[in-house]
Design goal:
The protein has 181 residues and is mostly beta strands. The protein has three helices and 13 strands.
Length: 181
């Protein structure tokens, strides 16, 4: 499906409606993507306050304009070694829905994720997104929303709701089994 958009000189240009925008980033040498509508901002990696007795994938919290925002190390969340901080390391602030809160109530939580580096915003057509693999992925398959094909290479599109599930992370922080939580 396309809609017509008026160009500068009175001509019409077809703009595809079946494309979505994704922020791409590098993590452990691989490219991942998150839907741009979930992204609030990207900030430089700065001082984090460690919180005792948290799972290893929770790096700490930051003060973001007077709000406490937890910061998650995605590599650690995927069961890999922690992300090494470099000049290009940054924190992507993502807004996630908190379960139990209806969308009209606006129950959301900002969560920061540490990434090696941010690449670019890409438009990926719906027909260029394959379903997640049933096996062989290096991360949990429920963390993968799909596999986007971009210039002959795959980009792993993450399911923000599953990767950053506030309830699951809270259960892990309390030492509970996620399957029973």
């Amino acid at each position: 499906m396309s809609s017509l958009v008026k160009a500068e000189q009175g001509t019409s240009v077809a703009v595809p409606q079946d494309e979505s925008q994704y922020l791409t980033f590098i993590l452990g040498g691989e490219m991942f993507a998150i839907g741009i509508l979930n992204i609030k901002e990207i900030i430089e990696y700065g001082h984090l306050t460690e919180v005792p007795m948290m799972p290893a994938f929770i790096r700490g919290v930051i003060n973001l304009r007077g709000r406490v925002v937890p910061v998650i190390d995605l590599r650690s969340r995927f069961g890999k070694p922690s992300t090494e901080v470099t000049k290009r390391t940054c924190i992507v602030i993502i807004e996630v829905q908190v379960a139990g809160g209806a969308e009209d109530e606006g129950t959301t939580q900002d969560i920061g994720v540490v990434v090696d580096s941010v690449s670019e915003v890409l438009e990926i057509a719906t027909q260029d997104i394959e379903p997640p693999p049933a096996f062989g992925a290096h991360i949990r398959t429920d963390f993968i929303q799909g596999m986007g094909k971009v210039n002959g290479q795959f980009v792993i599109i993450l399911s923000v709701e599953n990767v950053l599930s506030v309830e699951e992370m809270a259960a892990l922080g309390q030492g509970m089994d996620v399957a029973t939580a």
